[in-house]
Automatic annotation (TrEMBL):
Homology family: Belongs to the cytochrome c-552 family.
Source species: Shewanella algidipiscicola
UniProt keyword terms in alphabetical order: Calcium, Heme, Iron, Metal-binding, Oxidoreductase, Signal
Taxonomic classification: Bacteria, Pseudomonadati, Pseudomonadota, Gammaproteobacteria, Alteromonadales
Identification of the protein by name: nitrite reductase (cytochrome; ammonia-forming)
Pfam family, one: Cytochrom_C552
Keyword Protease among record annotations: no
Subcellular location: Cell envelope
Gene3D superfamilies given in the database record: Butyryl-CoA Dehydrogenase, subunit A, domain 3 (1.20.140.10), Flavocytochrome C3, Chain A (1.10.1130.10)
Amino acid sequence: MLFNKGLFSSTLGRNKGLLLTLLGSVMWISYGYAQTESASPKAMQAKFPNQYMSWAATSEQEERTDMLASYPAAIVLWAGSAYAKEYHSPRGHHFAVADVSHTLRTGVAPAAGEKGLSASCWTCKSPDVPRLIDKLGVEGFSAQNFTDLGTEMNSVVYCTDCHVNGSAELSLPRPHAQDAMAKVHLPFDKQDSNMQGAQVCGQCHVTYYFQPERSNKVNIPWIFGSTADLIEKYYDARRFYEWIHPVSKTPILKARHPEFEHWSRSQHAEVGVTCISCHMPPAKDATGQEFTNHQVSDALANYEQVCQDCHGNKSALVDSLQQAKTQIDAKAREVEGLLVKAHYEAGAAWEAGANWAMMNDAIMAIRHSQWRWDFAMSSHGIYAHNPEEGNELLDKAIVQANEARRHLAAVLKELAVTQVNYPDISTKQTAQQAVGIDLDKLTEEKQAFIKQEIDEHWPAVSHHGYSID
Ligand code: HEC
Ligand code: HEC
Ligand code: HEC
Ligand code: HEC
């Protein structure tokens, strides 16, 4: 419980005193979602001990996988972006602030006078984000540097991320999530509590991008709808891209954990089984008191309480999940293999003097294939949430990657290129070397930043699970 003590003291110590002295009691009202006294860890633990203790238990879920080591080809697909530096599978909610602070993806503080990574990267980690958005405005917040706001992150995925201050009533404190649910005609305040439960998860477990023309504020690209096709239509119409691939010059689209999207089209959603049903099932304490288990974790571990009602045979269910996973993983590896080749074939074509008129069809096919692959693979648990959609996305990605390579074969022939040098993607190390990532140097710089800045000045939650804990 060391951590909780730290969280408690840092929350009260840093924020409260300052706010109270500076702004007086008026702030309690306008700061709807801040950790005011009534929603402090101490108050919440006293009022709702079972929910509090189970929430705190997400700090036990320490394990995670290095995804770049699991499928190094992704490093080539993400070359030119920070994703190629470090990418892990998700773990317990209590690690959210510390992991985003420590990852190589968020780097170090920018040089004086330079613009760094947007503070938007904090958005799905802490209830201090809605608090700061209230204070600075949406764009005022996103215009800040990520590293400049580390000292403000006192709490990690907390009661006030999902509940109205100090109560059990559900809420959606992030403006981008309110907007998004309205875009798909599911405004939060018009939903029943079942759908509201899924939507609180969907604040964070959803795809998004930073809107460049709006100071990098978080936007959920659902204007036309939330499928891969309709999001792609939105991005294509706006000629949006996240970065230009350094080898193929493809304007890349990046998907991020669209769990909400995939679930919303699943057979489970149709019968009213939500994220909450599977990941936060009902539990009983020692006195027989019922409560919702807030240790958001593996769903399959809840087989007896949840799945059994509808899926009577456990081993059949486990087998079917395993099969779906194996099938989806195999297709993903196939797409990756094809896309690595396509990026380098495009690179060879550019080097041999190709122009955009010759390359356009191939480049667009790479863009669209990689988008679908990413929309499937960045959705953690797609094999459980919506295996049909996962398969469809990857089947189409394979077709599009092959199409890109057909176009490229014709271009290469026209330019009399007979040999393409493909990178060695057998391990994370070789793939990172191939795309020019100096992991030792990045790690050294990050470690220095952690030691001088994070360990010294950022609140306790940003150390959780790391050495100085
Ligand atoms: C990630 C979102 C999330 C977080 C964080 C969260 N809750 Fe909940 N909470 C829910 C959901 C969803 C429900 C179920 C609501 C329903 O089905 O009506 C719930 C239900 C409750 C209830 C109603 C009684 C029950 O057990 O069903 C209480 C009380 C509660 N939460 C307290 C807390 C406290 C205290 C914290 C912080 C320590 C917290 N919650 C953190 C999402 C969250
Ligand atoms: C405020 C944003 C936020 C909200 C709200 C939120 N999550 Fe998360 N969730 C995260 C982040 C960030 C991680 C990854 C943390 C890490 O790896 O450091 C995560 C991780 C997870 C994991 C992985 C846990 C593990 O042990 O592997 C599951 C499952 C999960 N969330 C489900 C949910 C469900 C279900 C809800 C709704 C009740 C929800 N989340 C609400 C941000 C959020
Ligand atoms: C039918 C039950 C079910 C529903 C509904 C469901 N999930 Fe899952 N989820 C699973 C299963 C099964 C897995 C695979 C691993 C496990 O949890 O056992 C999983 C995996 C995950 C993971 C990846 C965990 C990790 O460590 O890799 C996240 C994150 C997640 N779910 C979030 C959500 C969110 C958010 C929703 C709602 C939008 C949701 N889930 C709806 C059953 C469900
Ligand atoms: C209220 C009933 C209900 C509950 C509870 C439920 N499911 Fe389902 N599940 C369904 C229905 C309906 C289908 C679609 C028809 C079928 O395949 O049986 C389904 C399908 C599935 C599939 C096949 C996916 C697909 O789309 O082909 C998996 C895997 C699955 N469920 C896992 C789980 C897990 C894991 C849990 C518990 C964490 C769970 N379900 C809880 C009703 C339920």
